[in-house]
Specification:
Layout lengths: L1 H18 L5 H10 L4 H4 L3 H28 L15 H19 L9 H17 L6 H18 L6 H20 L5 H20 L2
Amino acid sequence: MTEIYQSTEEKIASIISWVLHPMLIPTYALLLIYSHDAFFVMILTDKLKLILMGLIVANTLLLPLIFIWMMRKRGIINSYQMPERSERTFPFVTTALFYFATWIMMNNLGLPGVYYLFVLGGAILIALALIINLFWKISIHMVGIGGLTGGFIGLNYQMLINSGSLVLGLFLLSGLVGFARLKLNTHNEAQVYVGFIVGITTMAGITVLL
């Protein structure tokens, strides 16, 4: 009975890890921004919203996934989960470059500053994770969900949105991600907590300075 319970918990933890994977965070962030009746949402045409969503999905999700798949096929990484710290350097560098390229492309669209937040912030967070990863393994899942939480904390602080319930929900999701990473034994508690702190503080700081 205990083994069945543990197996179920591990399956749930795995689902949480995939649904809240760091590569999905920019897409989730944009969808959450679109859900608000804020001026910076209402001034965008439907066509521009679709273009922006396509750019985010292609450059921060699909293209990085393709490159990571290619790395796996070529043996550069041994697993898509990249449990070894040494395997993470090249994927981190590649993903950060895609984020920076997306930020540059977005500059041509003449968007309000809030739309650059999660892409530029994401690139900075990946760069920080890359530097930390050279010396110590950090939870990139917690960096990602922490960044999403910190970004909306900053937007609330700047009075650009008013959604305390969303921030509370993101804190709860952060707890679930932390549980999942610990349950799957991919990280220890220090790596989980530090990842979340790095994500939330960095993104909140970037948002306040926006």
